[in-house]
Amino acid sequence: MEGHWSLLVLCHFDNTDCSDTKKGPRMLVLDSLNTAGPTRVQSSIRRFILDIYKTEEREESKDFIDRIRLEFPKVPQQNGEECGIYVLYFIYCFLQNRKLAEVIENKGLEEDFSQLFDDGSFDPEELENFRNDVHLFQANRSTKTEE
After folding, report:
1. How far is CA 91 from the centre of its chain?
2. HSE-up of 71 (CA within 13 Å, CB side)?
3. In this predicted model, what pLDDT tens digit does every residue of 25-82 receive, in sequence order?
4. 29-53: b or e for each residue (b if 16 or more CB lie within 10 Å)?
5. Are 127 and 87 in contact (CB under 8 A)?
6. 63, CA 20 to 30 Å: which among 51, 101, 121, 135?
7. Is the pTM of this model over 0.85?
8. What are the extents of the domains in the chain?
9. Are 49 and 65 in contact (CB under 8 A)?
10. Sign of torsion over alpha carbons 57, 12, 89, 136
11. Which residues contact 110 (CB under 8 A, 6 or more apart)?
12. What is the largest CA-CA distance in the chain?
């Protein structure tokens, strides 16, 4: 979908052992419209990671990058117009919600993240408050730039 935002989260990229069941690297795509299916974005994401590795002069090969687990967890859905708010909210959850970070830290590669927010870490009221804060911030910025 043109103009749609989703979030790519890179986990355990300091570990180069893809066979490590607890700490191996993995990628999560959080898409509040559920439009970023594996076949649609996988090659672009893997090219992006390869470019990062080349820029950092890391030695990992394309074969290694192809073995990194790429997951598309079920995340709260939005109305089709607020993907940016959801991306910011997902970032906020990862930065502020230690419980969510612990879920990622403790899951092994054999486990999936399909129910990432089903542990009670998603609160619709908190999202609504977050949305209001973002809109208030935008309104304040607009007022200041007009002055």
Report:
1. 7
2. 22
3. 888 888 888 776 667 788 999 999 999 889 988 887 888 888 888 888 877 777 777 8
4. bbbbbeebeeeebbeebbeebbeeb
5. no
6. 101
7. no
8. 7-146
9. yes
10. negative
11. 21
12. 57
Pair 47, 136: CB distance under 8 Å: no
How wide is the angle at C-alpha 40 spanned by C-alphas 61 and 74, nearest 5°?
A: 100
Report CA torsion sign: 15, 19, 23, 26. positive
Residue-wise pLDDT for 97-146, tens only, equals 666 666 666 655 445 555 566 666 667 888 889 989 998 998 888 777 76
